[in-house]
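Priority: low. Protein: Ferredoxin. Input follows.
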Amino acid sequence: MKVWVDDQRCRGHGMCLTLCPDVFSLTDDGYAEAIDAALPTDLEAAAVEAIECCPEQAISEK
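Result:
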């Protein structure tokens, strides 16, 4: 599983970073970005929760 953040939709709420800090980080501008690698199996559930909880629906599975 890989995840992607739509930088046009992200508004920097940081919910994804709170739920899954091993996958998401914030840019210098305060917007989310995801690691560009396949996620380890143990992080997939947290990544799915971040996708579901994003207030802007800016995160999707690649």
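The first strand starts at residue 3 and ends at 5. DSSP finds two helices and four strands in the chain.
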